[in-house]
């Protein structure tokens, strides 16, 4: 009987030795067969026919084409656009070393920001990074929203409610709470809800979404449906503007009432960045907004149609510079968002004139750090934080909050280290002069000095000034042409007196700009 284990062992060794060449032989036969077919059969019969197609369009294009072919419905792509736009990578910080020394490691850095300084109750945060709008119910789960609120409290910054139904526990878990007045049936918010906010933000658009949309009833079933005031089986359908705003003529009265309800806290306006930015900002300034939030084309979203993500808006860096120039001389604060993933990108935007940065993708990904193993590999990591997901209850709220706080703390510490290297002790000391542009296009967009500036030629400075004046006049002429088209359309088709009043104010601003542009004779 003792010999049996040895016989089994010898049998296993024999099988193993015999199996190795057999497996190699089978693999070689299959490989030869596959290669023979790939390299000899005509394209019409060859599985490699797909390769030339994928040189013409991407694997993502093929995937989304197939999804559209499956059910003939609008796709809702998660996270955001796949395009890469001109951004901050071609800007570099340029510190002095001999003529100005860096600050010592012990030097304190003031990164605090006050938004809406002229409001009765301005919003002050200790770091210039805020947690952006991510909607409860429409996107995130209750667990994820509470984790974000706790993280914001630990960081002494603000978190945004997003455009979903009001979650009562959220403002109680944080110190600085921004409440969106949004384009849904629940979007006007109650006085009690507004009383818990530190700033109100009217949402008219975002980088990856604008206009109306529909959320089917089954996707919002549960507590979010109840808090949103929807009947069982009733879909959620967004509006063109917040409730009570039916036409552009309703804005002045709507803002007047909202400011009374706000009881002194700042009013912010959130916009998708578009080429009509100056027109939008004219209306916003006339209406008395304290803060402007601009979402660049790089911005993400929970789930919208790919056409809105990839083919609407303009890049954030263009919008930032145009808005900063327009708002110069006003007390309106400027918040930029969309496509910020590193502390360097954030600090460059602040140097160019942004007062604060909204972050969404960074804290969203940090929520599931060290917890994604609960859902992968069979489900995407984001199912851990989405409302319409069975796995949402598996998120450990305190652990998620700690991870979000950690990632933003690390980003803040890196920004502080960069500030010391630049010899700056406060964000108010940071400016475009601390940057250099690596290419002429980025220099033109931002007004930052190009690194390859040519040697000065006789009369070059005079020529540069003349060209800058000409550029300003051409820009003004372009906007005047668009303005005149608007006037003609209004006079022909519209009896909207408040709209005519708005056009008159816009004309006054353009006239003042023209007066400021003194053309030198060449």
UniProtKB/TrEMBL annotation:
Q: Which InterPro entries match?
A: Aldolase_TIM, Glu_synthdom
- Span of the signal peptide: none
Which SUPFAM superfamilies does this chain map to? Answer: FMN-linked oxidoreductases (SSF51395)
Q: Which GO terms describe its molecular function?
A: glutamate synthase activity
Among Pfam families, the record links this protein to: Glu_synthase
What GO biological process terms does the UniProt entry carry, in alphabetical order? glutamate biosynthetic process
Q: Which residues form a coiled coil?
A: none
Q: Ranges for the Glutamate synthase domain?
A: 117-424
Q: What family does the entry list?
A: Belongs to the glutamate synthase family.
Q: PANTHER family of this UniProt entry?
A: ARCHAEAL-TYPE GLUTAMATE SYNTHASE [NADPH]
Q: What is this protein called?
A: Glutamate synthase domain-containing protein 2
Originating organism? Dendrosporobacter quercicolus
